[in-house]
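Quick one, tokens below. Sequence please?
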């Protein structure tokens, strides 16, 4: 019995160490984000559709639905820039009127990548399983305080 406990402990430590190992800032290391994801946040239903890496980027559309109506959309990209990755997005009202000015984007520079996390400054993607992920977004409220909003997604 003692040997089983020791082997289990060693296996657990090895698995945790592999998941925490920092990976190169390459799109293929965050390709697990690709897919059609659905969840709930902001009191409504959310949908995020990520493409596979191609052409040096991944792209996504996001939609929030409240009371059977679209509240807002986002277009997002993760792209390779100067040996790192950056996540950029733009917000749109339900009628596609942009929140940011024409040439402005909301940018999230990469901090690190592991086997189960892609951590940008202000946004983190966490792989729970092949069919589930969490996205944590830092959102500043009117008082200037940062709140972390969690999006739990299931792949559809």
């Amino acid at each position: 019995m003692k040997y089983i406990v020791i082997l289990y402990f060693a296996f657990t430590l090895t698995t945790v160490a592999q998941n925490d190992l920092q990976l190169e800032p390459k799109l293929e290391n965050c390709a697990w984000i690709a897919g059609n994801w659905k969840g709930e946040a902001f009191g409504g239903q959310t949908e995020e559709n990520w493409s596979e890496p191609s052409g040096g980027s991944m792209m996504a559309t996001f939609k929030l639905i409240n009371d059977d109506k679209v509240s807002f959309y986002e277009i997002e990209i993760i792209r390779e820039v100067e040996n790192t990755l950056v996540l950029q997005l733009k917000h749109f009202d339900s009628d596609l009127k942009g929140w940011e000015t024409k040439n402005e984007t909301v940018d999230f520079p990469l901090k690190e990548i592991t086997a189960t996390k892609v951590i940008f400054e202000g946004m983190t993607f966490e792989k729970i399983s092949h069919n589930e992920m969490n996205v944590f977004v830092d959102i500043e409220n009117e008082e200037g305080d940062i709140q972390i909003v969690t999006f739990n997604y299931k792949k559809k």
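Residues 2-20 form the longest helix (19 residues). The two ends are 42 Å apart (CA to CA).
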